[in-house]
């Protein structure tokens, strides 16, 4: 079984190194890290563990459903925001847990419709107990927040859209 603390330790060491790519393979898992923009980390496991991974993979690769075919109002909302949101996508630079506010009892860093300045914190991604602030790459207006509080995010996953 994969030990998550060992994976986090490998991620931290890779992040601190000058390596651009790193692959590690055991009998039960394969792990690949890349700092290159054209690739993203891949974690695959044997069939015996695949069912645990399936919901995450399916959710990440499911194509949008047309509003007429949506089974519920929540699916329609997701489709509508995906179709009508404008602006540049701010993507995750690492794997971790996204936090939309500095603390549970504090207001969110940004909301849809907020004006942001370059360098302003949009959200935090926690990786290996380190809080990494994700700054706005430019001035603009937040048109979409693409993750929920405490969602696990992948490298390259869309977080916020700024127009």
TrEMBL record:
A biological process term (GO) from this entry: fatty acid biosynthetic process
The keyword Acyltransferase belongs to this UniProt entry's keyword annotation: no
Keyword entries, A-Z: Biotin, Fatty acid biosynthesis, Fatty acid metabolism, Lipid biosynthesis, Lipid metabolism
Cellular component annotations (GO), alphabetically ordered: acetyl-CoA carboxylase complex
Highest rank taxon of the organism: Bacteria
Pathway named in the protein's UniProt entry: Lipid metabolism; fatty acid biosynthesis
Record Pfam families: Biotin_lipoyl
Keyword flag Lipid biosynthesis: yes
Lipoyl-binding domain ranges (all copies): 87-163
Alphabetized CDD domains for the sequence: biotinyl_domain (cd06850)
GO MF terms, alphabetically ordered: acetyl-CoA carboxylase activity
Cited function: This protein is a component of the acetyl coenzyme A carboxylase complex; first, biotin carboxylase catalyzes the carboxylation of the carrier protein and then the transcarboxylase transfers the carboxyl group to form malonyl-CoA.
Stored NCBIfam families: BCCP
Protein name: Biotin carboxyl carrier protein of acetyl-CoA carboxylase
Lineage of the organism: Bacteria, Bacillati, Bacillota, Bacilli, Lactobacillales
